[in-house]
Amino acid sequence: MKSTAHLFRAMLALSLLTGCSSYRPTPAAFHEVLDQPYRLGAGDRIRVTVFEQDGLTNTYSVDQSGYISFPLVGAVPARGHTAQQLEKEIADKLRQGYLRDPDVSVEIDRYRPIFVMGEVGAAGQYSYVPGVTVQKAIAIAGGFTPRANQESVDITRDINGKVMTGRVQTSDPLLPGDTVYVRERLF
């Protein structure tokens, strides 16, 4: 009877400790997305050039629902598309009664921002620059506070419409829209 009570207490303590752990191993898709072409999302601003059509050439923002509002053709889905896919989509829509053979080019004018929070000097929203790493983003946000865990951070990332959180090293690269959370160290 006594050994059963001790076993029960030990199992209860172990389950409580396991429940307190917030460690999340980094999903495999987390690093695989770094080698794939960039996909547009809400908050990105793109520059669309339609050659020999100055009235259509302009910068357009991807709205919250994932569309751009393009003259003549209306709403064009952009979320989840690469720049090349969006070029084809716009050209196909313009071919439907507006232009005979449109030559469309899409380039990213401004990426959606990254967010840095937790144990940093100035948490907030910052402009994304291609090639930025976690460490550089933390430096932009005022550096680590004295209580910060400087070994690893948690990143929340939208991958193909699914929001994932994983723990990474400070040397890992960031993507537009990432949220970096710097945890407090234990000692």
From TrEMBL:
Gene3D superfamilies: Outer membrane lipoprotein wza domain like, wza like domain
The UniProt record lists the keyword Signal: yes
Residue ranges of domain Soluble ligand binding in the record: 114-164
Alphabetical keyword list: Signal
Pfam families: Poly_export, SLBB
Polysaccharide export protein N-terminal domain mapped to chain residues: 35-108
Superkingdom per UniProt: Bacteria
InterPro entries attached to this UniProt entry: Poly_export, Poly_export_N, Soluble_ligand-bd
Protein name (Swiss-Prot/TrEMBL): Polysaccharide biosynthesis/export family protein
Organism: Mesorhizobium captivum
